[in-house]
Write a structure and sequence with these properties.
By secondary structure, this protein is α/β, with parallel strands linked by helices. The protein has 3 domains: 5-114, Rossmann fold; 145-205, Dna Ligase, domain 1 (2-Layer Sandwich), CATH 3.30.1490.20; 211-307, ATP-grasp fold, B domain (D-amino Acid Aminotransferase, Chain A, domain 1, 2-Layer Sandwich), CATH 3.30.470.20. It has helices at residues 5-12, 28-37, 52-57, 77-85, 94-100, 102-107, 131-138, 177-189, 195-199, 241-245, 249-254, 276-293, and strands at 19-23, 41-47, 64-68, 88-90, 145-146, 156-161, 169-174, 202-205, 211-218, 228-240, 261-269, 300-307.
Length: 317
């Protein structure tokens, strides 16, 4: 049974001084640094074997460490009781949604979340009213989607979940249906992806242009803060792709190794100011449609990922 917002409001009304909780993965360090700066206590929920970064090397950032056999054990009653005892407000990240599951978060995680727990499932690409649907409804320009490999008539990028690392995706490009199947079958033989995950992959037009992740923070208290703040741009570092790109073209062609696009980090980038209004307007549209479809809408940090293609009609070149 879905947890009602009124239930969480009743719970938080009993909190005295909140602690900030986070899953020990993804961006837990950043959350803890911000919480400490604000003078708040912190709680990190770790999985055994993955706790060292938080419990040992960054122990000064976390007042409480909860160690579990598996991340999804966070929904167990005793774990949730402890989180409530600590007056925890949980900051969700992508790892939280992947490892715990959006259904568990909506139906069983009786802990206050900073943000909208009902929006987390929109990152699941096969669900209705997901992130692609929201972008389309908002009227935000996006790459063309192909429903079948047989429709491929231009350069596309295929996004499919990795078989052994469900948090990561295996990307590959193709120009034709024949190239799609050749590369896909090779990845299946190499045990990188499964046939079932391939059926659920996303095939989208590859935009030839620099990529930008535009990061924002949407506010609930719009009587105090603006509707949203723009935080900056970044792009991804991926292995082993970026290592290969560091080589001269001749050396790249001589390699006989599979190219991986596994995200390993991010780096900051800037955008020409004449193009920035595009990003702000997209954020406005996205916030508006999220509020309409998933009330009360976006609360907290979010990103819009995109690319700027060459425009021959741009007077600024």
């Amino acid at each position: 049974m879905t947890i009602e917002r009124s239930e969480i409001q009743e719970l938080t009304s009993k909190y005295v001084k909140p602690s900030i909780g986070v899953l020990g993965s993804h961006s837990a360090e950043e959350v803890a640094v911000s919480a400490k700066y604000a003078g708040l206590k912190t709680v990190v929920v770790c999985q055994k074997g993955r706790e060292e970064l938080y419990a040992k090397y960054n122990s000064f950032l976390f007042d409480e460490v909860i160690l579990l056999d598996r991340f999804e054990d966070i929904i167990d009653d005793e774990v949730q009781d402890r989180l409530r005892e600590l007056n925890t407000i949980f900051i969700p990240n992508r790892s939280f949604t992947v490892y715990v599951g959006w259904r568990n978060i909506e139906d069983k995680f009786y802990i206050p979340i900073y943000g909208n727990r009902y929006l987390l499932k929109t990152e699941e690409r096969l669900l209705p009213k997901n992130q692609y649907w929201l972008l389309e409804k908002a009227g935000i320009k996006r790459p063309k989607l192909f429903l079948s490999p047989d429709e491929i008539d231009r350069l596309v990028i295929v996004k499919v979940r990795q078989k052994k690392k469900p948090l990561e995706r295996a990307f590959f490009t193709a120009n034709t249906p024949e190239e799609y199947w050749a590369k896909a079958e090779k990845l299946i033989r190499e045990d990188v992806i499964s046939e079932e995950d391939l059926k659920q992959s996303i095939i989208e037009e590859f935009v030839l242009g620099p990529r930008f992740n535009a990061n924002f923070h949407a506010w609930a208290l719009t009587d105090v803060f603006p509707e949203f703040d723009f935080l900056g741009f970044d792009d991804r570092r991926q292995v082993n792709l970026h290592g290969i790109l560091n080589l001269p073209a001749r050396d790249q062609l001589e390699l006989n190794i599979p190219i991986k696009n596994e995200e390993i980090g991010h780096f900051g980038v800037t955008m020409r100011e004449s193009q920035k209004p595009l990003v702000y307007k997209a954020a406005e549209k996205f916030i508006r449609v999220c509020k309409s479809e998933y009330p009360p809408g976006l609360i907290g940090s979010f990103a819009l990922q995109g690319a700027i293609a060459y425009d021959p009609e741009d007077p600024e070149g």
